[in-house]
């Protein structure tokens, strides 16, 4: 059974569906996002919902103030088995490649500790005012690029409140409202313009449950070239040729070494032909 049917599209020669989704993401307003029903199999999500009970999870975060009212797991929480299976899938390389295909963002990195993510639950009268998310992971320094939300609320109706609202900021107003219906996933770009929230309180007697994951890229900094290459140590057990090559690597400018590698690669390709 495929828990992510869309992954099958990555292996097909006809990528028209993925092209359509990528186009929808890039052109969505008020900022790039994608709403997908059935991104994950109902079997996977139903098992996750059956085990979704924050009263039985360790290290729960409680947010109770004028701007938000909710509970969530923390980076130290031990997830129930079925829910951990969901997060293992979305943090795996095949899913990251799918996200790159949909968004154009390369070299995406997961956060298996789920800072800011995990299991989120909003009870009756709970809310989260319109906001943008953190720009960098506080522990790793990685840049926050995407967030994925998957809802686990069967038969949710708009009148129950808790709709996800995507806002523009000039003038401030909601542009899109998304009902947190079971099996619906929302992929959103993270930027200073990605205003979102669910300011309308959830109706008393209802629980709004969401699985949330963030995805990152490394900051764009100019790294020292020596930190990118393998460094060799000369010793008496090496041949003269080995020590000579190590010496050249240490003293020659990198553009000369790169040129030599390119010439050697070209010769190998020619000889192979």
From TrEMBL:
InterPro entries: Pro_4_hyd_alph_FE2OG_OXY. It holds the Pfam family 2OG-FeII_Oxy_3. This is Prolyl 4-hydroxylase alpha subunit Fe(2+) 2OG dioxygenase domain-containing protein. It comes from Komagataeibacter intermedius AF2. Residues 121-216 form the Prolyl 4-hydroxylase alpha subunit Fe(2+) 2OG dioxygenase domain. It comes from the Bacteria. Gene3D superfamilies: q2cbj1_9rhob like domain (2.60.120.620).
